[in-house]
Structure formats: structure tokens, C-alpha cells
Amino acid sequence: MNRLSYLILMKNKPVQPRLWNIEEFPFHPEKLNHIETLMTVGNGYLATRGSFEEGYEGDIVTTLIHGIFNHASGTAVPELVNAPNWLPFEVHIDGTPFRLVNQNEMSLNPRGGALLGYRQQLNMHIGLLRREALFRAESGSIVRIVFERFASLHDEHILGQRLDIVAVDGSPKIEVTAYIEHTVTNNGVIHWTDIKTGHTTNQVSLSAKTTQSDYRLGMSSTLLATGDMTITVDRGNQRPVMKSVFVLPHQESVTLVKLTTVYTSRDVTNPLKESIHKLENAAIIGYEKLLNQHQSEWHKYWQDSDIQIEGDEIAQLSLRFAMYHILISAPRHDNDVSIGAKTLSGFGYKGHVFWDTELFILPPLILTQPELARNLLMYRYHRLPGARHKAKANGYEGAMYPWESTDTGEETTPQWGDPQPDGSRIRIWTGDNEQHISTDIAYAVLQYWRWTGDDTFLARYGAEIILDTAVFWGSRVETKNGRYEISRQIGPDEYHENVDNSVFTNRMVVWHLEQAVSLVHWLKANTLVDYNRLVESLNLTQARLELWNDIIKNMFIPFDDAQQIHIQFPGFFDMEYIPVSHYYPRTASVQAILGHQRSIQTQVIKQADVVMLMALLGEEVGASEVMVNNWNTYFPRTDHGSSLSPSIHAWVAAHLGLDDIALEQFEHAAEIDLRNNKGNVQDGIHGAASGGLWQAVVFGFCGLYLDEKGEPVVEARIPDHWKSVTFTVCYRGERRQFTITPN
Amino acid sequence: MNRLSYLILMKNKPVQPRLWNIEEFPFHPEKLNHIETLMTVGNGYLATRGSFEEGYEGDIVTTLIHGIFNHASGTAVPELVNAPNWLPFEVHIDGTPFRLVNQNEMSLNPRGGALLGYRQQLNMHIGLLRREALFRAESGSIVRIVFERFASLHDEHILGQRLDIVAVDGSPKIEVTAYIEHTVTNNGVIHWTDIKTGHTTNQVSLSAKTTQSDYRLGMSSTLLATGDMTITVDRGNQRPVMKSVFVLPHQESVTLVKLTTVYTSRDVTNPLKESIHKLENAAIIGYEKLLNQHQSEWHKYWQDSDIQIEGDEIAQLSLRFAMYHILISAPRHDNDVSIGAKTLSGFGYKGHVFWDTELFILPPLILTQPELARNLLMYRYHRLPGARHKAKANGYEGAMYPWESTDTGEETTPQWGDPQPDGSRIRIWTGDNEQHISTDIAYAVLQYWRWTGDDTFLARYGAEIILDTAVFWGSRVETKNGRYEISRQIGPDEYHENVDNSVFTNRMVVWHLEQAVSLVHWLKANTLVDYNRLVESLNLTQARLELWNDIIKNMFIPFDDAQQIHIQFPGFFDMEYIPVSHYYPRTASVQAILGHQRSIQTQVIKQADVVMLMALLGEEVGASEVMVNNWNTYFPRTDHGSSLSPSIHAWVAAHLGLDDIALEQFEHAAEIDLRNNKGNVQDGIHGAASGGLWQAVVFGFCGLYLDEKGEPVVEARIPDHWKSVTFTVCYRGERRQFTITPN
User: Fold this and answer.
1) What's the complex ipTM?
2) Which one of B579, B586, B632 has the shortest CB-CB distance to A8?
3) How large is the C-alpha radius of gyration of chain B?
4) pTM for the full model?
5) Does residue A494 have an active-site annotation?
6) Which domains, and CATH codes, for chain A?
7) What element of type H or E holds A629?
8) Tens digit of pLDDT for each residue in A525-547?
């Protein structure tokens, strides 16, 4: 009797930590691009979608590196560049290429081979993607193939891959090839030029630079095989290929490792040389140790950032999934880049940075990983010149942040949408008129400061952001009808563009100026050097402060006294009323169902707008009766056409004691990526929905806030079936743990 | 402001009890037949798959009524007959038929209409299937459509359907039609003849009889509409159709109800008349009250049969799902029918009854719904004549139950499988040689008796089953080599057919005869009347009892003294060894991968065989060292090619303290129907896997058994992450609740 197989069984199925895994089983080719997004691995420097080592028809293979933008000629705006593909790791079994081909598995000699079984798991606890397949070659040989990959969190320039092959039936001849694929594009747009490949006896390498922005990249790979490894140049593709060929005896197994390193000119002067150097070191350290180092870093991340929910496994898994994707896209060692709306996991929104980062993604980082939050805020600080340039170009003073931001800090929102079926294009006004972004950034700076107590940051960097954007607003408001107004705005509800006196914008500007006035006093009292510097550089005259105070007092806040509600903007209620709830269940947005032309003339709201205001400012917005009235007015009109909406509604509903709705909205938010309920996950993770989910739990259900003394307290109201919620926040450098139970 | 929509929103989304729902969202046409099976509704009298009221290409619409078998000419064996379809309930919106068509939802006037949204939920807590759709007609009108259906558990002849329509956009003309579809077949096989349709002013009806078995059926339907309802006869189909036509004003809603009643000649002499009479009563009671009555019965079912697991939601949902499907297929008022291997939820195995019922499905009923269990055992009692006939025909004495059983009690296993691609057919030997079925039934009788203390049942009915099958075994064993042997058997491992001395069979026969001997003594001591009756009718001479005792002592039990293991059958270890664990992950069975020819010459085992023996007889099988050795030998060789296997392995692994494996096997079992991991759920629910799952928890993890005094006790070992398991069992007419916690 051979008891070996029993042991092998255990080895083949590593115990997976519970509720830490995203699994695909069996293979779902119809969800290929959705699952590629979910299975993204990353380390805050770069991220790579869960595309297959051997490729698959229709896959969207991307590796996006923070900060590497390029504005290709003939395109409207710059975009984050798809880096050379480090994944290729291909296997031939008795001449049959391993591919996920679904053939009749009953054939003992299937043409092109046959996939007999498949399971893929992303272990979020250690940031490891693992894919197992059972495959029959044309020869009839059966192999079990296991791929693993990670982007090292310990050394962000190192990418590890492992390949295990077991000869399950037959003694096949195995040919393994590995290389770097440099013929990559962003949906056909070419961003790399000056591509040079090279190789030595044991590694291949590549250098390239972006066509417009001149970023240079170096990438190197090696294949660690047990047997011989040769490198030959594929002349057709000008590509050096590493190859290992051997016979695998029946029931024996073999392990091969591919290591890849990458640098850009944003990191070092000579990226190619550094990548080669790093690769040599990595090969000496070896896969196992690299993986262990990586795992230790993840362990630290989760110690601080995990929320544990007992009594709701879907909530538990969704929250970890959300936090995982925030963590893999948050730069650790770079304070000159930020997280785009789709993180680094897809081409959506071209890697551009929106308010999503400051109001949705930042809060979980501020409260659990403040160093990472600081990096992201510094990105905005470094882009003050761009914001000043935009203000000036529009005839204003101070700093006016772009609605979409890249490396340059200039406005990069495209002016026109992609062509409609009839060839017409819709004008995109957000870059012109969605001006609340400047205040959103100020909000994040203050939230960071209040939680961290990082006075140095506030004095040296943050204050300048808050004050120069306040200067902008002072120049932006209009004096009309004996009060201050702001015309032609887009609030969070982007279905209604260029409206006058968006209540969200007007009220947030008042709040912004209040904070600016307080901040000036704080600077004067605490750091005269910075006070003097900023008063001089930003020209903070007494007249300017008086103007701010006057705006605070006399800003027009649209409000219906009879109904005791805020008015989203004057005229809103004159439009057609559509009961959005009738449109249930729906997959598309109500806007898509009604058509663009009609929907903009209705009261259908894209996403939390007045409700967003209530989330951000809480009871400052109005008495609790007004809050309830606002909710009852706007919630039934809201389409949730944006993934940013449900989590904010969950948060506010929890505060209003609308328990069932809070839970329903939370679950809606939790499903956005995992169940692809907006149908566009192939473009990347909804970063804001991820951050919003965390806020719905911590700020919403758990009711965490800073009290009048600035101390964190909770006023919790968790769903009935949740037995407990445990989380840790970092308050002024000190970790505080909260455990909420129904009692 | 119109706050109506807020209320409607709440109405539209009834609060679903947590972990009681199976949901499909959005529409998954690629899983159509899988989900149809999952969404089956039933009441122990009949069950109907979750096919759509309006139909869908490729659907498998079935209603199966217990006991209605028919042997159509030209077919090999009788099968459970697909009853006339009571579902048709069709809607036209401005002339566009409502269908689940996925069109470009952006078109405002889509040809053929467009599905804008979809959600289907089976609420297992009350046995209600609900399907919601948002649909745009060609005219541009948008309607929200909600279907509900249930098969009344309160009055099993009543079937209820409700249709709600909301005019979400536009004021469409609505045409609703409802009818009974009588042109039904079993995959093309026609079973109904003498079909007569009829109608009055407010109902349609149908009578028919089966072609060979002469069962008569009557079915009647009425449509309760708010407006006018007319009935016209569709001449082409000879079908009376109920119709209601009206204009639905913008944003108004309408509710229509369809009620259907059904009887067969198994219930009453005049099924048509009874169905009409019942329908009239049902219409007076009305949908709401019928649903309430139905719901109350479900409430009682779950009070006794629910297992509550804290700490594992997938386990919780899977267990409820398993029990739901057992309950909807368990006859309540009929002790002359039993549950087929695929319950009443699909055509698989033609509705035939196997050992699956007695050893897998019965235990949860014995312990939680003993009245239902008794009905199923009475089915076997009533089929003793068939079993005696089979014994006689094969040259044996006593009662030899058929491997596959229908209404007649005769052997109905087909002799030949369906043709292979090359036209050849494989001989099916189970009907000839899988003889352990008789002992399996005896096992169930005794299990029922031990838990219920139902002495009357044992004395009057059960004893006759146990003893006459013991008589069979006395005539079946062979005297060879100075011992008793049994040749040409098929044990649970059906990959190895017609083997001599299957250890499972031989050992179970010994156990069976031991029980028979004890039972004779018990009868003599407790009920002399029954004792005398049975001694006479079964000819239980002293010589026969001596023979039984001699077989008990001298039966050949294949055992390897050196290895201290049971041998599945002599010669087993001479075959090729295949490490099954290498074939991971796989979707197909190892048999399918290796091919039938090769696999039967290997040690690959279809399912728990020696391990099944260990589950059934526990420590009676051998010392704990032998149990461990057996496990280590057979588990690595087991394919789990049968859905019966994983749950038994979970149960035994839990007893052996193999916690990780127990959990893994449990999860495998839990996924069989819900994730379709055997790929054949379209043929119906795996009834045995459902019952096995319950046993894995109660007998395996919770370790429930009857101690030497016959009292229920637990020796629990639940998975680490399970916080608690709570269940109720009925012991001798008294409910006992157990709560297991890790401590």
C-alpha cells in the first residue's frame, strides 16, 4: 500500500484561512475580465491584473505602475501606462501548449488538450494568487499545474512566480518558457518607445521609455529551473526567451520559479541597471524567503487594517476585499503619486485621480495607516502649482484643483465623451464645473490632522492647501441678490450639470471658509513662522479674512422653509418626478433606461448629493428633523448610478436609525465589485466603493467620530444579526481597539 | 413632493429572513436548468421545477406527482410521469410578450422587448418562489413584473400563483393569459392519453390518463383578475385559455391570481370532479389566506427540522437547502410512495427509488419528522410481494428488494445503459447484483424503531421486512472453502462490479442476521401474536435460525491481518494503484478521465465502501486502529464519483478526529447541488447528498448516537470556526434539543 498520496492530498490543498479568500471554481470564461480585476495583486508600487501566465483570448493584461503617465499623440488626455507584461510563463506538455481549453474531457487524446479541472484563489491574507489546473495533453499525458504569484510588499521592485507541475499520468516531455512581453498597449494605444531587450546566460531584460513623458523603465527576469535553462532570442518578436526542457517521470513533480524586477526613472537614474542588480539579489534570496518577507509585511498591514465582523460572513469577506484593494494600490514609499478611481487594477478613467481618493479611499487609510494617507495628501500638496495654474487660467485667485489629476497636476478631464452610436459626442463639463474637488481635498487634510495630530504636516503642507483653495473660493463666489451665490456648478449628482447654487457646493464652501478662518488663528497661535510665510505667500490680508467671514454669513443655502428641507439646487423640484424605486430590480442605471436626454430633465439623482453633505458635515447641516426630511426627499429619487452612492446612504441611514435600509445599502455597496452589479468591473476596482464600504461600517454602523474634545467615541447601531465588530484605529500615534456588540 | 415611492420601495423589497434564501441575481441563462432544479417548489404530493411562467428556450418544465409511474411502450423501464404544466401565466405589454430577452437596454423601443432587471428568490422558510423583473416593451412602456408561486403544504392539491404588474413608465395595454399546458412529455416520451379539456365561465380543466398504468388525473385552474376575464378555446392546441385585458394607468399596479388544483386516481375515484370542487373552495378562500395556511405548515416543519449553525453561513444555508428539498419531496398523507434518488425535482433516474432513500434521506426524517419516515418505510412494506417475486425469480427464498423500485415493487433497473458515441451499450449489473439494498432497508427499519420506540410499527410491519430479507440472505449465501461466501456482488463502490465477497456486503449481512435473530427473540417476548404470525408466514423454523447463527459465525470477512485492514474484496489490491489525489482539481470523475475500460482495472473507488461500513456500524467494524488503517487505505483511493461519498467521508473523518478533512468533505457535499460541482443538477437534486449532509453534521460533527441504554447522547467535534450547532430530535415521541459549542 502506498500512503504517499494521502500526504500529497494534504500538500495539494493548503489550508486556506477562512474568509480571506476570493475563489473562482470552476473556470468561468464568461467572467474572464471581471475575475481578472478581482484577482489583481499589487504592492502600492504597481499592480497586475489576474490575467493568466499563458494568456487567454480576450484577456486584459495590465501592469500599472504608479506615476507612469503618458500622453500619446492623437489621444485627448494622458493615461497611466500599461507596463511590459512580466507574467508569461508557459508550459508545453508533449508538445501541447497548456491553455484553458474546455474540450470534451472524455476524449483520451483531445486535440489541443483539455482542461479537466480548475481552481483559482486569491489569498488576501498574504497577497498571494494561486491557480490550479488539471490538464490532459494531446498525447494523453495528464499534468497537474499550479501557478502562484505575488508582488512583494517587502521589496516593491520584486515580482515572484512559482510553477509546480506533477506528472499525474504518463511521463511527459515538458517545455517551460518564460519571458517579458513588451508589445503591450493601452487598448491599442502605444506608449513605449526605444524598447531594447537584452540577456545574459541566466536572465533577460528590457528597457523602454514612454513616448511623450520620457519616463524610462527597466525590467529583468530570470527562470530558476532544476535542470538546464537556455536563453534564445525569438527573432520575430525580438524577444529573448528563457527555456527549460525535461522529461517528468510518472508521478513526480517539479518546481520552477520566475523572478522579475522593475524600476523606473521615477525611482532611480538607471532603471535597467538597478533591475538587473536587484534581480541578482532576489535570486540569491530565493522564492521561499521572498514570499515569507512579503507575507510578514501583509501580516503587519492586517494587524492595523482588518475589521472583524462576527455574524455576517459576506460583510466580513467584502470588507477584507475592499481593504485589500485599497492597500495594494496605496503608495508606501512615494508621496508624489495618488490612487486613481479604479485603483491600479484596470484601464477605467485612465488612472486619473478624482475626489474618490480624498473622500472615499483616504478615510480608512487616515484611521488605520496614517503614513500611507500622508503620502496621498502630499501628492496634492505637490500639485498646488497645477491648481494655481488652473485658477489663473479660469480668471480666479488661489488654487483650484483639477477634477481629474495625473502626474502633472494640470486638469486632465477630457472635454468630450466617446462617440455615441450616431457619432455625436456629449460634452463633459466636470473638468470645468465640478469645483467642489478643492474643498474635498481640504476636508481630507483636516480629517487627517484631527486623527493624527500631525501638526507638522498641517503647518508645513496641509494649511497651504486649505488656505489657497479658500483664496480660490473667495474669488469664485458671485455677489447677487444681496448675497453670495455660485453659478454653473456640478455637485455630486452629475446628472444635473452646470446648475446655479448647488446646495452641496455652497454649503461645503461655507464650511471650508470657516475652517480656513480657524486655521489662520491656529497658525498664528502655534507656528508663527508658518503663519508669516503663508500670510505673505498667499496674501492673506485682513480684507480677505473679512471677505471669508462675510461669505460664511451671507452665502445662499437653498432651503425650503415650508418643507424644512434643503433644496439640491433652485429649480430641482420643477422637473419631472420619477419614482426610482419602481425601477426595481434593474441592472442598468435609471439614466441608461430613460436615456440621457430625458433623464437630465427629471428629478432622478445620480448619487448621494444632499445626503453626501449630511454624511460629511453631520449635525452641522441642520436639526435632526431636517436630516430626516432631506433623507425622505432625496433617497427615493436616487438612482445609485454611481458606485459612490450606496455606501454613503448606508452610513447616513444607520445614523437616522433606518436599520433595514442601512443594511440593504451596505449590501449593495458590498456587491459592486464582487458581484459586478454595475457591470463594469472589467475596467477596474471601484476604489471609492471600497473606501465607502469601510466608512459605512466604521462611521455608519459603529458611529465612530471625534467628540468636542477631539477624542474618538462610538455611537453604534450595528445590524441585528451582527454579533460583533472589532476594529483598530490609530489616534494621534496610538492604536485604539473598538469592539462593538449589540449591547 | 411625493413620498409614495419611498413606501413602495419598502413594499417591493420584502425583508427576507437571513440565510433562508436561494437567490439568482441577475438572470443567468447559462445556468437555466441548474437553477430550475434548485428553485423547485413542492409539498410531498408533487413538486414543480423553477421553470418560468412564460417559458424559456431550453427549459425543462416538470411537475412530478408521487406514485404516478408509467411504462411507455418502446422504453426500457417505467418512469415518473411529467404531469400537465400548471405554470403558464403570460403577459403581453402593448402587444410585446414578456420574455427574459436580453437586448440592448439602451434602446428605447427594443424589438421583442428588453429585460432591464431580474431577481429570483426561493424563500425556503415559507416555501415561496418569487421572481421579479423589469421589462421594456417594444412600445417603450416599462413594467415591473413579480411572480410568486407555492405548492400548498396545508392542502397538497392546491397550487397558488400571483402576478403583480406595475406600470413604471407609460400606460400600457396589458393582456394576461393563463392555462394548463397538456402537451407535456418526459424528454419526448408521451405518457398521457385520453386528454380532455373543458371550461366553464370562470375555470378551465383537464383530465387525462397514463398510457400503460391507467392512472387518471384531473387538473383545474382559475384566473382571479380585477377586471373582466374571458375564456376562449385555442383551436390549434384544443386548449381553453383564460384571458384578462386592460389598460394599466401610469404608476398604478394590478394583481392577478391563478389557482390550480390537482387530483389523481391514486387519491380519489373522480379526480376531475374533485379538482373542480377543490378549486371552487380555494377561490373562495383566496390567495392570501391560502398562502398563510401554507406558511403555518412550513413554520411547524422548520420548528422540528431546522439545524442552526452559528459561525458558518455557507454551512447554514446548505443545510437548510438540503432539508428543504427532503421536506418538499417527503409524502405526508401517502404511505405507498417513496422518494426517488433525484427527489421530485428532475427526470434523473426516472423517479426510481434506490438505497439512497433508506440510508441517506431517511435518517433526518426519522430523527426530526418520524411520521414522514414511517410513510416511507411503509412503502417498502407494501412492496414485499415484489421483493418476494424477485427472490423467487432468482431462485432464492424470502424477500429480495429491487435495486431500483417504482410503484409496482418489481425490479426496474434497466439492463443496458444509453448508447455510447460508438453505438455500443454498457451492461448495467446493479439490478442483478447490488443486493445490499435489502439489508439497507432493514437497517432503516431498525433505526426508525430505535429512535421512535414505535413497537407497533416494528411488530406489524418492520419485522416482516427484516426477517423476510434475512430469509433471503440465508438462501443467498454460498458454502465454500469451509465458510460462507457471497459471490458476484456490487458494493457501494460500483466501479467494481460482480466481485466475490464484497466486505461491505458480507459484513452487513452478518449484521443483518444478528438483528434478525435478536428480533425473533424480541417478538417472542413482546408480541406473541406477531411472533406466531411471522414464524408461520415466513417459515422461521429452528433450523433457519441455526443457519443464521452459523452464517454469523462463519461468514468470510476479507481482512488483511498484517496490515490490519479490511479488504474491499479479495483481489482489490492486485489492480493498478492510482493516486486519486493527484487528479486535483477536477470537475469530472477520475473514471471519466481514465475511461471506463481502464478505470475498472484500477484501485480507484467510486465512493465510500469500507468507509460506508464504518459509518453504518461504527466500532462494531473493528478496533480504532483498524478504523484508522481502513481510512488511510481507502480515502486516498476514493474518487467521490458519486454524490453519496463526501458526506459519509465527512462523518467518518469527524469521528476519527481528522478535522480538516471532515470539513473539506462536508464542504464538498454542501456544494454538490448549490454549485453544481458534479455538473448534473439539471437532472434533479441529489437527494442522498442532501440527507448525507444532515448526517455529516448530526452523526459526524455532533456525534449523536444511542448509547447502550438506547438514550441519545452526543460526542461532538465541530469545526473550529463553528460557534454553535443547535438541533432538535424526536426521541420516543419527545423533542430533545441539543446545542453543541466548542467547549
Assistant:
1) 0.92
2) B579
3) 27
4) 0.95
5) yes
6) 8-302 (2.70.98.40), 350-672 (1.50.10.10)
7) helix A624-634
8) 999 999 999 999 999 999 999 99
